[in-house]
Design goal:
Elements (H helix, E strand, L loop, with lengths): L8 E6 L4 H9 L5 E7 L8 E2 L5 H6 L6 E4 L13 H21 L4 E7 L16 E3 L10 H20 L2 E7 L10 H6 L2 H8 L7 H18 L1 E6 L10 H4 L3 H8 L2 H9 L9 E3 L2 H7 L7 H9 L7 H6 L17
Parallel strand pairs: 1-2, 1-4, 2-3, 4-5, 5-7, 6-9, 7-8
Helix pairs in contact: 1-7, 3-4
């Protein structure tokens, strides 16, 4: 890999020690950017160690920066281990600090990594209703402090675009972490790889594709100005499948991706009996020009070829976890 020229755009990446932060620190130079990593933890990809809650630290990080990708956050796994105030401090105040200092420094682009968790209760249809077709038009109904603070941070981004002219794009990412599922019943009933491949149908993306969406957001931010985008693998499922998905998902998937049945049978895997939501990435593909590679059909092709379903980038980054301690009943307490 060659070093970028000094004329390359400098991108401040918050959360550089995390899954996505590391992915961006690894891939942005190949796209012609010069990334500077910021995190509260030391790592090989962190040049500036400190908290985004510290306004003076944030201000000092803005020197010679052209754009910001803000991935640093407290996540859903922290809900059981951190105070609500911690979420407000990091996810809201930290974002506000970055936005205000970006404007003060004349930085023109701000990419905010949000989450499909902001949809909250909208993701769970009532009994008997079809699966939810989740687009950017669905009104978020956050169900925990994580979702509440992420939607508040999104709204701050929109405010700074409207009032201060800052180009802000929001990427609502679905699952891309490699850690085990938080639900004990799922871990007991399914092989971990089986769970994750199932999720590529409706609620998962590979980190390589998530990183590429952020690259494209940098390229398009000034021309778009403001936008919210769902970043998840392209689903083979259709609107007309939604009712049957709630009662007989294996039949629906067999109709859309017939090759899955052979690949699953060879491994003793099973499709979930029911699927309750489908994330739709059409807007991101249309407006950002995003072409995610790792969809369910591609994953099945890789399995048939004897390859691993994850990208090489996902393998290099590996599992990071969310806590410094190990819990008895799962990857994190619920």
């Amino acid at each position: 890999m060659t070093s970028p020229a000094r004329s390359a755009k400098t991108v401040l990446v918050t959360g550089s020690a995390g899954h996505l932060g590391e992915a961006l620190m690894r891939t942005l130079p190949r796209a012609g950017y010069l990334p500077i990593g910021v995190d509260i933890k030391t790592s090989p990809f962190t040049q500036r160690v400190g908290s985004i809650v510290d306004r003076d630290f944030v201000s000092a990080c803005m020197r010679n920066v052209d754009a910001i990708i803000h991935t640093a956050t407290l996540h859903k796994p922290h809900v059981a281990t951190h105070r609500r105030q911690d979420f407000i401090d990091t996810n809201i105040t930290g974002t506000l600090n970055l936005l205000e200092e970006a404007v003060a420094a004349g930085i023109g682009m701000f990419i905010f990594t949000s989450t499909t968790s902001v949809f909250g209760r909208a993701l769970t249809p009532s009994p008997g209703d079809p699966a939810a077709w989740i687009t950017e038009d669905v009104v978020p109904l956050p169900k925990n402090i994580y979702g509440v603070t992420k939607i508040a941070a999104e709204n701050l981004c929109e405010l700074f675009h409207r009032d201060r002219g800052l180009s802000c794009l929001i990427l609502r990412t679905s699952r891309f972490f490699p850690e085990a599922d938080d639900r004990k019943e799922t871990r007991q009933a399914y092989d971990d790889a089986n769970v994750k491949v199932n999720e590529f149908l409706y609620r998962r993306a590979d980190i390589e594709d998530v990183a590429s969406a952020h690259h494209l957001a940098l390229e398009r931010a000034r021309s778009i100005g403001f936008g919210r985008y769902i970043v998840s693998a392209t689903t083979p499922l259709r609107r007309e499948d939604l009712q049957e998905l709630r009662t007989n998902a294996p039949v629906v998937v067999g109709r859309r991706v017939p090759a899955y049945e052979r690949a699953y049978a060879a491994r003793g895997w099973r499709m979930f009996p029911a699927i309750d939501r489908v994330y739709v990435n059409e807007k991101a593909r249309r407006e950002l020009g995003w072409h995610p590679r790792y969809d369910f059909a591609h994953v099945i092709e890789r399995l048939d070829a004897g390859e691993h379903f994850r990208s090489p980038l996902a393998h290099v980054i590996g599992s990071k976890g969310y806590h410094d301690v190990v819990f008895e009943d799962g990857p994190y307490p619920t």
